[in-house]
Write a structure and sequence with these properties.
The protein is of the alpha/beta class and 574 residues long. It contains 20 helices and 17 strands.
Length: 574
Amino acid sequence: MPNITIDGIKVAVPEGSTILQAAQEAGVNIPTLCHHPDQSVKANCRICVCEVAGSNLLQAACSQPATEGMNVKTRSPKVLEARKTILELILANHPQDCLNCLRNENCELQSLAAEYCIRDNPFELKVRGLGKDLSTPALFRDPDKCVLCRRCIEACSVIQTVNALGIEYRGQKAMVVPTLGKNLIDSPCIMCGQCIHACPVGAIGEIEEIDELLAAIADPETVVVTQIAPAVRLALGEEVGMPTGDLPMDVLVAGLRQIGFDHVLHTNFTADLTIMEEGHELLKRLKEGGKLPMFTSCSPGWTSFCETFFPDLLDNLSTCKSPQQMFGALVKTYWADKMNIPASKIFSVSIMPCTAKKYEASRPEMQSSGFRDVDLVLTTREIGRLFRMSGLDFEKLAPADFSPWMSKYTGAGVIFGASGGVMEAALRTVYEVVTGETLADVNFTAVRGFEGIKEATVNLKGTEVKVAIAHGLGNARKVMEQVRAGESPYHFIEIMACPGGCIGGGGQPITKTNKKRLERIQAVYEEDQACAVRKSHLNTEVQELYKDFLHEPLGHKSHELLHTHYQAKDKKFL
C-alpha cells in the first residue's frame, strides 16, 4: 500500500494503482478524455497531466504508477496551463458546431472546454473536411470530430471482437477509419452501437429519424402506432431527469400520446410470444434431432455477427424473428383486423434500446405483412430528445392506458431487457409445457448477473437441458468457437450483442461505466417481481392470439409471419 501525497492530501493505495486512481481515492478530480474506466490505459490525450516532485516532465496520471513517497500536484499553474494548451490544440482541429451536434451538452470535450475557460483559441482552426459517413441505416461517422482517443476501437475490437474500426496513418495524419473499406458499410460492422457509448464526442452516433416521425404524425391519414421495448422505460427516465427505473409505465404511455402517437402498445407482448414460438422450436429440435445447440435470435447485432463471422453455424440460429419484427408483422395483420384499420394506413414505430434494430427493420426479409413490418425505429435517446423538445413535465402528466390488444405482458417479457432474461423466460415456460407441473419458484437465478458467460442445467422430468448465456460479442465468440469445434455441451444458448443485454444497447442513454448498466438490470428484475403474471404462456392476449389467428405455435401462420431466415455475409470478413 504505497503512501503518496496528492495536493497535500496523504493517501494509501493498493500496489499497482495509478496516480489517477490515487487521486480518486483522495477525492481529487483529474480531468480525462481518452481514459475509460472499463477499458485499458491509453495515455493518448495527455489531458490528465500532473506534476510529480523530482520529475522535470509532466506525467499522465492515467498511466503513471503511484509509488511510495510520491508527491503530486494536480492544480499548479504549470499543470493548468498545460491542460489548457492541450485542449486548445485538440479544439483547433475540431469542428466548432456544438449547437448542431448530436452530443451537444453531453460531450466530454465540450465539458472540458467549459471547465478550462477556453474562450479565444490562439491556434488556427484547421478541420480536415472529411465529411460524414452515412453509409449504414443505423450509424453515422463524423471523422472530423474524432479526437483519436481510440476508445471506439477498443469497444469494437476488444469487447465486441468485430474489428470494424482501426487507425490509419501516423502523427498528425492519423485517423480512425473503417477496416476493409472507405465507409462503415464496407466493414464488418454489425451496428451494435457500442462505439457510441465509448466515444467521448460526436464522432459517431445513431442515424436520427425524429423528423420522419413528426411528418407521419402530421399526416391526418396516417395512423401512427408504437411499441416500447422492455429495456426502454427503465433507462428513459435518465433522459428526462429521473433516476433509473423511476418513470412509471402509465406516465410514459401518457407522454407518448402527448407527442402524437395514435396508439401505444408494448413489445413485451411479442417478447412473450417469442417465448412460445422459440420454446416450442427448442422442444421440437430436442425431440426430432434438430440442429443443436439452438441459439436465440432476438438480438439483431448478434444475428449479424453470426452471419458475418460464423456463417457455417447459421442453421443453429432459431428461425424466430425478434420481438420487434414479430410485432411489426402482427400490427399490420392481426391488430389491424382487430381495430378495423387498413394496414396501408398504419405507420409502425418501434422505440428500442438498440441501434441495430434500425438495420433489422430495413432488411428485405422483414415484409411478411405485405408491407415493411416496422416503418421506423427510434432509440431511447431519440425519444428522450423528442420528449425534451415537446417540453413535457412527467411529474404533472396524468397516467394513461395502453391501446387495446398487443399490450398485455408478463414478467417474462420484462426480463428480455437483461442478459439471461430470454433464457429465464424460456425456461419458465418450457419447464411447465414439458412437465405439466407448476414451477414452485420461477426465479432461475443461475442465468442472471453480469458475468460474461453463464451456464445452468435444468431437469425436465429426467431430461437434462444444458443452457448457456453470453453477452457482449467477445464472449459470444468464445462460445461460438466451442460450438464450431464440436465441443459444446449445451442444448440452448442465449446471446445478446451488447454488454448487459438490451439495457446496455447502443441506443440507450450514454453510459461511461458498467455501473449504470447494473442499476438497469436491478430495475428489470424489480419490475418482473412486481408483475402479477410472470410466465409467457399465461399471457391471456397471447392465448387469444393463438386461438383466433395463429392457432398453434410453429403452425403455418406463425411460420409465415413470425419466422425468418439468415444468410452469410461477405467472405472477406472471415
